[in-house]
Amino acid sequence: MRKIFALITVLLVIACTVRAQCNTKTRFNAAKTEFIKQSGDTAVKEDPVVLTEDTLNVDVVIGNGRDELKGTVTNYACNFTDPDNGMISFKSEVTDKSGDVRHATFTINTKDGKTTIMVEAEEEQSKIRLSVDSSEVVNN
Description:
Layout: H1 2-22, E1 25-30, E2 33-36, E3 42-45, E4 49-53, E5 57-62, E6 67-82, E7 85-95, E8 101-111, E9 114-121, E10 127-131, E11 134-138
Antiparallel strand pairs: 1-4, 1-11, 2-3, 2-10, 4-5, 5-6, 6-7, 7-8, 8-9, 9-10
């Protein structure tokens, strides 16, 4: 009976940890950005990007504040099988500092603890890929 109780307790802790990733505000940091053209050619720009997201908002700061995109999140979906494997996807109309609007789809994929973010905007010819160097839960 104690073994069953211990097993149930462990499973509940794992379930709560995995679900917590879907209900937190997270900041992702990347040192470079890859621009992937429709032809498959890739250009790399060494420019820091900080993406902060939760179930309601997304904020992308480019080049230590040189530009910033902000938007409201829609169609939020989150599925983590464990803390090191899962995916978050959402859509957002993001607006930059000059007022230009882009209709973007964000996909945050974590596999074996390594996180990659793909951003596709209807108005752009290239997809954007960020290889995340670090991430942290933001408490506010």
